[in-house]
Amino acid sequence: xxxxxxxxxxxxxxxxxxxxxxxxxxxxxxxxxxxxxxxxxxxxxxxxxxxxxxxxxxxxxxxxxxxxxxxxxxxxxxxxxxxxxxxxxxxxxxxxxxxxxxxxxxxxxxxxxxxxxxxxxxxxxxxxxxxxxxxxxxxxxxxxxxxxxxxxxxxxxxx
Length: 159
Description:
The protein has helices at 3-13, 29-36, 68-75, 84-91, 136-143, and strands at residues 19-21, 43-51, 54-61, 65-66, 79-81, 109-112, 122-123, 130-132, 146-148, 151-152. By secondary structure, it is α/β, with parallel strands linked by helices. It has one domain (3-149): Alpha-Beta Complex (YbaK protein). Strands 2, 3, 5, 6, 7 and 9 form a six-stranded mixed beta sheet that branches. Strand 2 and strand 3 (54-61) form a beta hairpin. The longest helix is centred in the N-terminal third of the chain and has 11 residues, at 3-13. The protein is globular and about 40 Å long. The chain starts with a helix and ends in a 7-residue tail after the last strand.
């Protein structure tokens, strides 16, 4: 599935979007930013989490961190990251290529408002070497995502 399911999804919902297939890894935010020549914040990372008894995908800017309190307030429970095997089973994408496109299982998608800091962002495209450049609003529109505020911006992060 994966890259092929993303190609099929985009061909149906956004045929003008082109998959950017790198020869270098885009599996992490840092690798994707380097391969694409953009700042890490513009990488749209997709987090696969369980909130209560629901599995959801949250797409956020690459340098933001998921905030437990904000997630509880917005989605009704504490987020728990899924293991790689469960992510692969539910999304059809391996960790490092997870995106909200061409999913094996229909899952609710949420876009964090942090994505709106940019004109375009770069989510993965179903493989560890592929991405798509897209506006945040279009990303939300083609995936049926709901906008939420569940992340802490990098400047506010306390590590």
